[in-house]
Amino acid sequence: MDAASARQETPAEADEASVSTVSVANSISSSFTKPILSNLPGLRTGSLLQSTASLIWLLQAGLIAYAIHRLASDGHFNEVVLPALSVLALGILRAFIDMIGSRIIFKTARHAISRLRAATAEVLAHRSPLDTQKPPSGTAASIIAEQTEAILPFLQRFSPVKYKLVIIPSAILLCVSWHSWLAALILIFCAPLIPVFMALIGFRAKKASEEQMIEVGSMNAFLLDRLRGLNSIRSLDAVDATAIRFRTAAETLKQKTMIVLRIAFLSSATLEFFSALGVAMVAVYVGFQLLGDITYGAWGTKLTLGQGLFILLLAPAFFEPLQELSAAWHDRASGKAGIAALDRLAMHNLKILHSDKQSKNNKLSSPPEVLIQNIHFQHQRTNIPVFENYSLTVRPGEKLALLGPSGSGKSTLLAILAGLVSVDSGKVSVNGTELSDETANAFRQSMAWVGQKPHLFSGTLKSNIRLGRKEISNTDIDLAIEQAALSFVVANHNGAIGEGGAGLSGGEALRLALARAMADGDTHLVLADEPTAHLDTATAEEVTKNLLKLAENRTLIVATHDEQLASKMDRVIRLEAKP
Amino acid sequence: MKRHHSKKQWQNLLIILRLFFARHRNMLSIGMLLAALTALSGLALLGISGWFISATAIAGLTVATAVSFNSFVPSSVIRLLAIVKTAARYGERLTTHDATLSTLADLREKLFRGWAEPGAARILLKRPATLLFRLTVDTDALDSVYLRILVPIGAALAATLLCALVIALFVSPLLALALALWFLLIGFGAPTLASSSASRTARRRSYGMEALRARTIDLVSGQTELAIADKLKMQCSAIVKADAYLAAADDRFNRIETATTAVFTIATAIALSATLLTVAALVDAQAISVPVATLAVLMTLSAMEPFSGLRRGALELGRTMLAASRIAPRLSSSAVSQPVNAPDGETALCLQNVTAGYEIAAEPVFKGLSLRINRGERVALVGSSGSGKSTLINLITGEISPSSGTVEAIARTRLPQKTELFRDTIRENLKLANPKASDDLLWDALEAAGLAKDIRKLPHQLDTMLGEGGLGLSGGQGRRLVIARMMLRNTPFWIFDEPTESLDHKTAQDVLNQIKTLVSDKTLLIATHIQREAALADRIIVMKDGQIISDLTKDNADFKKMFSSLKIS
């Protein structure tokens, strides 16, 4: 029923929802998925078609009952031919209508999934990397892949059930009560008992299964967790002990799962029991009525064989939508969980500076001057500001070191300069133009970033240097590989690197980051975040040398706690750790 | 070639099936029997009801026949069947799920053991995220072998058999044979056809899903790099593209599924119509009675139903096969790694003329490397990345075996570079090193590692649950906990791999001081590139390109020079 209210909303609500799409870009949205999921007319069309297909059974049942009735009343073979062929024709018609309906539903639902994924990717792209609430990459991947996927069966199976639940039983009741009010009463009596019992059992099941979901998730997590630490397990000679513990955990999980399943199965057994009982009672009643043992229930007349069979054939179909509902219930639960996960992901207020409308003309053409004026910045959920009324000027072509211990805000300052997070107040300008949503993209194109742990994209080493920048020629890339002393790495890693490929050592990864920067001739401002951390002396020296080479005729700002690196810069700004 | 490939796939599936039946044969068989019973009672319920109504209608025509008609037995049977059907279904679900879950528990343990072998572990650690993810989804995909293929096959066969038997006995053997053949042809033929045309799509789906995940991981982890290159939009459209690829596969899947459903509906209509015509002819010829004719029609009506359970299993078969082909090899692997023997006398470690590397094809990292470390020596191993430090440590700990030469070492424990703690209580994390350790012993170890005070402050003390990767402790605390764990193993030879990497200077110094007090009577090998760690050592070995280029003890004049050439922190 919740699903109904999620999609069938008043126009006013729909308006509100479309307003909130705009506000996603700005900050907080009340519901991120609603605008996409609230308007899916295909689901309605498809569901109505599928309901129509189910209704065709009423005609088929009538024809079968009629045919047998004719046979019983000394009818001949000839009289059965037409009904039998009509049953076949209707069966074919029913198959096609059902197929068309389910295709329409699928296409609509799948299209909605694509839109959800695209919108989620947007959100992930623009949530600031400094946002501590942002899910880690693995979680983000499972939200966009599996959790979003779970919405598909929910839309696909739950929506036709909603329509069938209303249309089919009422049509059948109408037909049955036309012939026998008592048979209709039996069906009515059995049907409402089902939701009551299911609700009673389901109530208990809900809590148990919520706990269960966490457990099942943690079983996989258990395995992953231990496999990640295989080095330790092997060096502690604990493979056996871990395997046994794993086994015990799996057994416990199994027992807990069975408790939940027992309740879940009990609830569907209730449903099946009442529908089987409903069919049995209808059959027995009709039989006794035909025998004459029961004389009431059929509007004062005795039922005919045809009427009796017709009622019997409709009885199982009466309960079918309820069974479908029960089967789709699980889809509904995981679909709703998926929707909730997407909505949570979109709830944030820390974004990187960006805009779709870009003024291309503020691309830099020479080493820029960077001006930081009275900025104020504070991390989420802390009350100590990192920068309070902080100002700094970096001259064109200057090489500046921001030196300080971890927590002093040096990396944050670099992120602010790259527009990866916006300041609470104050302003940052590059060559006199203020850094803003509109200007950030163009500025960033003239920047290079050398981080301490560069991310390796899945792909080849060369594609990792290019990063999709089409303006960079193959010659540029080869040159950058040579300059960054990466040639031997290229020779060693012919295939894929990154996710699903081989990794690089810390030194190699940094050389890659330098090569990324060197390949782009349009770079005028280089931001380097702790480039020599975690490197051995020889590699650190080499990276420093290459960084300086990269910084020739460019403005360089490097955040570091490496005194040796800092001493090679034109100027050193010391930042203090915040308490 | 292709045939060979598909044969191999079936073999993999067989390995998995054998695993299913090896330990839980009875339960799995009972599950299938109950599924058959459910199908049979459903079929009988409708058939007998139809017969009952027709029979009563005819008997009810005259008072005499109405009175003599025994309505008690059939009406009780009908009610009984309703109860049997429900009970059998409940029992079937419980048994089949219990059996599947038990088997998956076995499978997970077996997989863990398979991956814990030295060679396998290295492959896994090289590319953790993808392989680990595959491992979990593959395991989950395997439950459909039994639940969605074997169980429905059992139920469908039983239903077809009953339907054919009843019709053969009471109506016409010829009609029974024709119906049985028709049901088997469509019931197995359509899913088989669906499965073969969906198998490529199932693989595509699985690859598409992996691409979607990998691209999302790139978007989130590489966000800064992408933002600077102004390629966030490009990465978003790469994700959209991966989804479009998936959508195409999903669409094909859906087309196959809906077509199969339609085939089933039409096949039922054909069977129904044919049965109706046949019984009409037989009634006309007065060969059978009307109640029997009704019985035949109603049984035909629902005989196809159990086959529809096969539909999903058939569509997923491609995915299941893929999972089986990735998992099966891990279940029967037997990587041979030679044990590292202990040397005699005062020697702690002895490498003689060792040649070793990773892949057989690749150039070995060492050629003819020799090294001796005596008991009680404390050695720093330095060299830039790629010099062979890690390979040397892997050799000593038995992670890799030399292709020639000998490696001998006394009992040793290695502290990996990364703090590896597990999602478990502090107690269980410690007991990994010594499952029999008493709490007193654990506290002693924590005391020695300088962590006891911190743990005592926690509300649940040793029972404190740690998050994934030891979440909940600070970097320094985690490092100390790992050292406490090492203490519990108490081997005479400790191997450290950059023990204070990623700790801030003050914490690092504390941890190192702690280590210093603990290693007084031990042999120590410490791979490092910073002074504070090398300060523990009284001998420095420098490696470059797989060779030892200098080997200096504290009394050597160059020792100090070497030491001060290292990075301070």
Automatic annotation (TrEMBL), chain A:
It is found in: Cell membrane. InterPro entries: AAA+_ATPase, ABC1_TM_dom, ABC1_TM_sf, ABC_transporter-like_ATP-bd, ABC_transptr_CydD, P-loop_NTPase, Type_1_exporter. It holds the Pfam family ABC_membrane. It is a multi-pass membrane protein. The chain crosses the membrane at residues 48-68, 80-97, 185-203, 263-288. Its main location: membrane. Residues 370-579 form the ABC transporter domain. Keywords: ATP-binding, Membrane, Nucleotide-binding, Transmembrane, Transmembrane helix. Residues 53-334 form the ABC transmembrane type-1 domain. It comes from the Bacteria. This is Thiol reductant ABC exporter subunit CydD. It comes from Hohaiivirga grylli.
Automatic annotation (TrEMBL), chain B:
Residues 30-319 form the ABC transmembrane type-1 domain. PANTHER family: ATP-BINDING CASSETTE SUB-FAMILY B (PTHR24221), TRANSPORT ATP-BINDING PROTEIN CYDC (PTHR24221:SF653). The chain crosses the membrane at residues 27-46, 52-73, 149-170, 176-195, 262-282, 288-307. The gene is cydC. SMART domains: AAA. Keywords: ATP-binding, Membrane, Nucleotide-binding, Transmembrane, Transmembrane helix. It is a multi-pass membrane protein. Residues 349-568 form the ABC transporter domain. The lineage of its organism: Bacteria, Pseudomonadati, Pseudomonadota, Alphaproteobacteria, Hyphomicrobiales. It comes from the Bacteria. Its main location: membrane. This is Thiol reductant ABC exporter subunit CydC. It comes from Hohaiivirga grylli. It is found in: Cell membrane. Pfam families: ABC_tran. InterPro entries: AAA+_ATPase, ABC1_TM_dom, ABC1_TM_sf, ABC_CydC/D, ABC_transporter-like_ATP-bd, P-loop_NTPase, Type_1_exporter.
